[in-house]
Amino acid sequence: MIIKQYIAGPIEANNYLVADEKSKEAVLIDCSETVEKLLSDVKELGVKVKYILLTHGHFDHVMGINDMKKKLGTKVLINAKDKSQVEMTKTILSTFGINIEKNPEYDEFIDENTELKIGEIPIKIFETPGHTEGGMSYLIQNKVFTGDTLFKQYVGRTDLPGGDFSKLENSIKNILYKLDDETEVFPGHGDITTIGYEKKHNEIVQ
User: Fold this and answer.
1) pTM
2) Fewest CB within a 10 Å sphere: which of 26, 46, 64, 71?
3) 2-201 domain in CATH 3.60.15.10?
């Protein structure tokens, strides 16, 4: 399995290209802007991006969807509970002086019962609300992509619309912390970590 990280957008969010070397199928997890390096990597690796998977609907993780969706020829999947977050993108960006023609467009709603895979590699979906109501994490082999739910030694903020610290704490303690300690955590911002490290060193959620 190939994983490539791209730091993109106005708040330096992590976008991840995850590809199965055998089948040449891939997914893009979050899409903060048009990333030319990502497009060239897709071409160089000879992979087909099946889906853009969104960890949540905040503007800094979805801004690049319309352009990248077209260039990659793919579908955008999101939890229905974050539909309203995506639909606020244009309005929120205008407060930063950034004007976009229209809100990011998604294609299908998914939840923890949705079955996805790249090649023969299953993608396990966990609904991990708290940062937003529709927050999701994706487990691919022993790698979990947590969006803004869990960071290295920190957690996502819960003071924005749809945020709820008790739900975030439950998502981390009763879902993510149940994964093997060796599971690598690929967060929406910042450095890669592991579940075991966070159990020991994340002072916010113990």
Assistant:
1) 0.96
2) 46
3) yes
